[in-house]
Prior knowledge:
The complex is a heterodimer.
Chain A: H1 7-37, H2 53-60, H3 62-93, H4 100-112, H5 115-125, H6 132-139, H7 153-181, H8 185-193, H9 198-226, H10 230-235, H11 247-255, H12 261-269, H13 271-287
Chain B: E1 4-13, E2 16-26, E3 31-35, H1 42-50, E4 57-62, E5 65-66, E6 77-80, H2 92-102, H3 107-121, H4 136-148, E7 154-158, H5 166-183, E8 186-191, H6 194-200, E9 203-208, E10 211-216, H7 218-223, H8 228-233, E11 240-247, E12 250-253, E13 257-259, E14 272-277, E15 282-298, E16 303-309, E17 312-318, E18 329-334, E19 338-340
Parallel strand pairs in B: 3-8, 3-9, 6-7, 7-8
Antiparallel strand pairs in B: 1-2, 1-4, 4-5, 9-10, 11-12, 11-14, 12-13, 14-19, 15-16, 15-18, 16-17
Helix pairs in contact in B: 2-3, 2-4, 3-4
Adenosine-5'-triphosphate (ATP) is lined by residues 13, 18, 36, 38-44, 192 of chain B.
Amino acid sequence: MRFFDNRNTLGRVFMLPAGVLLLLFLTYPLGLGTWLGFTDAKIGRAGEWVGLDNFQFLFGDSVARLSLFNTLFYTVVASIGKFALGLWLALLLNRHIPFKSFVRAVVLLPFIVPTALSAIAFWWLYDTQFSVLSWALTRMGLIDQYIDFLGDPWAARFATIAANIWRGVPFVAITLLAGLQTISPSLYEAASLDGASEWQKFWYVTLPMLTPIIAVVMTFSVLFTFTDFQLIYVLTRGGPLNATHLMATLSFQRAIPGGALGEGAALATAMVPFLLAAILFSYFGLQRRAWQQGGNDK
Amino acid sequence: MAAVTLNQVRKSFGSTPVVHGVDISIDDGEFCVLVGPSGCGKSTLLRMIAGLEEASGGEMRIGARVVNDVAPKERDIAMVFQNYALYPHMTVFDNMAFSLKLAHASREEIRQRVDEAARILGLTEYLGRFPRQLSGGQRQRVAMGRAIVRKPQVFLFDEPLSNLDAKLRVQMRTEIKALHQRLKTTSIYVTHDQIEAMTMADKIVVMNGGKVEQIGTPLELYDDPDNLFVAGFIGSPAMNFIPGKFTAGGIVAAGNVTLSAPAGVPLESGREVIVGVRPEHLMVSDAGLPAEVVVVEPTGADTQIYCRIAGVDVTAVVRERHTFRPGETVRLAPQLTFLFDPASGQRLA
Ligand SMILES: Nc1ncnc2c1ncn2[C@@H]1O[C@H](COP(=O)(O)OP(=O)(O)OP(=O)(O)O)[C@@H](O)[C@H]1O
Ligand SMILES: [Mg+2]
């Protein structure tokens, strides 16, 4: 059949199943969610088009505004923490240490454990009466009263951030480690002959060579943190006093238990511009460097 | 600038000895080439001088100072790496300026010294480019530029030309030599290419298996090799070796071919020896040894004749033009021969 001899036709035919799947499972829910955001749909009742009403309402809603603040705070602090700890771990693992491969495997553990499971572990760690952390701190004489990790708004914010960092660090560390290993050792040798101290080697060689990878890994990290749901839902369900409600958890809360599908969907849709901004920032600001372009080999 | 002295320098990786007690003294301003086959420890020795590798024994001096325990950056040396090791994220200018910047040189001084180095190396128009945007030869020059802006006591080169094509290699060889004549900085240059060694060196150190085989000027090594290894390593095409027995009437090789012995050699009759003859010392002559021609390669200036004498493959280089054919027997007379001991490889005469 001549029809199938044409490379372009054949290519399109092969892409068809993938295209249909993408359309079905990606575009359709996204489209439906966005559309719902512009309706007054409730559970069990198809909605009417209401334009920007939902967004206007959310803008005036102090809980929604608090969730925006929480999400930004959570994302910024957790991402910085993951970056700092991840980079430090990667640098450490890149050295010659005993039981290297074993240590590397151990570092990956938090990443492998299902989030819900690790969240339950943290829940125990943060328990008002049985917290190991409080117990240890009391024993060391640092505090004289058990900390109410998940009961106080700011303590809860930092407690959830700590759990998120613990979970996210392995991904950052292992990816940065892979990046570190692509840096040629002779660059460090050249730098040490050029008179660089350890710190200067890090600042002038390691960090700039690592920026493209940092950009990619931190973009992913920011996206995952911004949209985090599981950890919060298991640990605090958004409490106390909505102090740890993220946009994702609040959106679910409003839509499913609350029944206001349209409002929940609008809240979820409101996250999209932030995510797009993060992607664009990393794409234009960090990822593309002049020194990586041009030339043709190596 | 400074002299470099190595005294019984050793290196082992774990329990594997790689460099076995090397003594070399390099004068101030000298261009010294370390040459030897792959894996003989040249890079290791150079890296010990640079301080990138710790010596397991012996003493290294730069000038009067013992540098065994001195950090690389305190040794006041610059090194050109085989892969150039340019910082990919810095422009040519920044690559060359990096060491000066770390040494807190003033802005004007940096600009002035980088510009001067760029002018010497013909890099002025590339100062704003990144290493990726340069050709291999230009990168090589940037690596040299990075070394010369610092005005160090010693330059170290580790096979800097091995990534270049043949033509560029010859050109850069000349440029490095010219640069040395201009700056007169003590230089240690590692290569496995004996032609590079012969053409560039004031002093050649021939290494083999972690030991120094011989040290001398290019012509000393060529005219007066100490042993079989040096005789075979220096010179291109390589020296021919024909095994035989020493007798009063000459050296008898396989097939009763008799070569004349160098005069006045006190050797007992019947002793096994190896005769060394350089290709250019074989002359076509009616009084010569019978040689069966295998391949003839005219290069224009001279002709290389691959043939068999006494059952051994031999190369001869003759200046005259002959029309020999493969299979034909010609007569070749050695003009100058060396004698070596087959067991130890030491030169006998
Ligand atoms: N880090 C190392 N650990 C163990 N052995 C090593 C190490 N570096 C080099 N060697 C060994 O030391 C010997 C000398 O290596 P070196 O790199 O000095 O050789 P070279 O003379 O520079 O060879 P080439 O011409 O191929 O560069 C080799 O046998 C090599 O296998
Ligand atoms: Mg080497």
